[in-house]
What we know:
Number of domains: 3
Shape: elongated
Distance between the termini: 9 Å
Number of strands: 17
CATH topology of the largest domain: Pseudouridine synthase
Structural class: alpha+beta
CATH class of the largest domain: Alpha Beta
Helix content: 10-25%
Largest sheet: 9 strands, mixed
Strand content: 35-45%
Number of helices: 7
CATH architecture of the largest domain: 2-Layer Sandwich
Oligomer: single chain
Radius of gyration: 22 Å
Amino acid sequence: MLNGFVNVLKPCGATASDVVVKLRKILGERKIGHLGTLDPGAVGVLPIAVGNATKLFDLLTNKQKTYRAFFTFGKTTDTLDSYGKVVSTGSVPSTSAVLEASKAFLGEIEQVPPMYSAISVGGVRAYQLARSGNEVELKKRKVTVYSYDFVRQVDQSTYIFDITCSGGTYIRSLARDLATYVGTVGYMSGLIRLNSGCFDIADAFTLDEIEQLKEAALLPVTYPLEEYPAHHVDEKFYAKLQNGVRISAEFDGLQKIYCKGELFGLYECVEGKLVSRYNLKNA
C-alpha cells in the first residue's frame, strides 16, 4: 500500500476529481483524495493524499492558500468566471480606484459564495441547483485575506493580484465584491493556485511527469507535519500503543508520536494520557 502526498500541477479543464481518477490508475491505489477542490478552469497546486495520508484530510484541507488571480471589470458572468455567460455590463473603473478598493478586503471579511459552487444546499450542490434554474441563496461566511498584492495591469479592464487567504475563500467572490465596491461589475478571468499550505507550485508535478515517476513522485506522510514536534515513546509501550491503550505523557498541543521508529500518528495529552487524534499507523 502506498502512503503519502502528491503535489499535482492541475491542468486547465480538469476537475479535482478527474485528477484523482487519473492518479488511481497511475499509482494503482484506490485510497486517494484531494485536499480541497480547484475549479476546472483554474490551474496550479492540487495536493493529493494517498493511502493512510487521507486520514489527515480534516487537518489539512483548510490550510492557508495563495492564488494569482486575474480580475476583469466592466462585465460579469453567471458563474463569475470566464466559462459562464455574460449577464451584466458596467463601467471600467480607474486603476487608482481598483487598487485603493483592494485594501478594503484585507483581514477578516464576510463573503457570499458564488451560486455556481460545490457548497451543499439541502443535500444538493449549489451549482446543480443553479444549472437547473433554481434560485440559490447562500449564507455569508467569514474568511481571512492575509495579503492582496497588485502584480500588474494587463489592459484597461484586467488586473492581476496575488492573494493569500484562509481555506474556504472564494476568489470569484472577491472579484465580484471588489467590482461592486468600485461601483461596477466584474469577474475572475483566470486563476493559478501558487500554494496550498506547504505545497508549492515550484515543486508540483504535471500528470505526465507523475505517470513517468509513479511512486517516486510521492512525498512522505510527514511532509505537511513539520510544524508538529516529534515525541518518542519508549519501545516497552509499543504493544500498548498499538492496541490503543492510553499511556502516560505530558506535553502541549498536537505532536507526532513515534515508537520503535514507527510513526503512530498525531496525538495530544488529555489528563496526562496520550490520546490519538490522527491515527497514521503503518503510514
